[in-house]
Specification:
Rossmann fold, single chain, four-stranded mixed beta sheet, binds pantoate
Length: about 300
């Protein structure tokens, strides 16, 4: 297939590297220098200690017609991308954002494109403008955003590599909600307290705060199986005990966080159901202040 990947971050480069084995890839970046660097050097993917180089086309400015466009930019860059996508002829577009706020934007978006949504369960870290490390091997689960969007091409995305599987599912919303729950429990607290993920369960006071955020989120999302879900959140804290969450890393590096995509989405949902969410409100306001201060003190 002819696939266009929008975004030159870790996930964009990861998708471009693996999918280039069987597909013709064009990656769209915001900066000209990054596109030039990718055209000159290809993309270097490091996985399990080995580095591979793939040749891709790289461009700035969205144009053309693809069998599939994959949007990998963060939520705060999405609106600009939607505006650009509105100028393109009707095509299939897969959105791979974290959090769930983009679903509200996609619902409001008046477009003839065929929309798909996916959840990325990989860990990836951007090293340079043309190098990415695959730090955690997972899956991409994806499916149609609108029931009428056909997915007869789904088999073409299967089997790119054992390390990079794209699994079609109509249950993607449930998968997104569970990921959102993990992120809202771990990310804001680690960013506010400047602690690694494991401390949220080794310190009983932090664990209590995490449980309060969990309870609010579960009731906003109307999720059942609370015990299983809490055990899942705790197990992710164990497995990633030594990690700095992505939100903590964003705060430390002075970057915009995914606060709106994660906490913002839940607060919007809470408001529509008249649910009081004092912990999430506190997280949201404190993170907003921290983002403005651009703290860079965590070692
Ligand atoms: O955003 C993150 O950092 C990760 O999704 C997770 C699972 C919270 C681990 O750090």
């Amino acid at each position: 297939m002819k696939i266009g990947i929008i975004g030159g971050g870790a996930i964009g480069m990861l998708c471009a590297s693996y999918l280039s084995k069987h597909h013709e890839i064009t990656i769209f970046t915001r900066r000209k220098e990054q596109a030039e660097e990718m055209r000159a050097s290809g993309i270097e993917l490091t996985v399990r200690g080995q580095t591979f180089r793939t040749v891709v086309d790289a461009q700035t400015g969205l144009k053309g017609m693809y069998d599939l466009l994959i949007v990998t930019v963060k939520y705060h860059q999405l609106q600009d991308v939607l505006n650009e996508l509105s100028t393109l002829p009707r095509q299939r577009i897969l959105f791979l954002q974290n959090g769930m706020a983009h679903l509200l934007d996609l619902t409001k978006w008046k477009t003839a494109h065929q929309l798909y949504v996916g959840v990325v369960e990989h860990g990836a870290m951007k090293m340079t403008d043309h190098a990415v490390i695959h730090t955690g091997i997972g899956l991409i689960k994806w499916g149609p955003f609108h029931h009428e969007a056909s997915a007869e091409f789904s088999h073409e995305l299967e089997g790119a590599s054992d390390d990079f599987k794209m699994v079609f599912t109509t249950e993607w919303k449930k998968v997104l909600e569970e990921k959102l729950l993990v992120n809202v429990c771990i990310n804001p607290l680690t960013a506010l307290l400047h602690v690694k993920n494991g401390e949220l369960i080794s310190n009983p006071s932090y664990e209590h705060m995490m449980k309060c955020a969990f309870d609010e989120s579960v009731s906003i999302l109307q999720m059942s199986e609370k015990e299983r879900l809490w055990a899942h959140v705790v197990s992710i804290c164990h497995k990633t005990a030594d990690n700095q969450s992505s939100m903590l890393q964003d705060i430390v590096r002075g970057r915009q966080t995914e606060r709106k995509a994660i906490v913002g989405y839940l607060l919007t949902k809470a408001q529509t159901q008249a649910i009081h969410a004092p912990y999430l409100t506190f997280f949201n306001r404190s993170l907003e202040v921290l983002e403005k201060k651009q703290t860079k003190s965590f070692e």
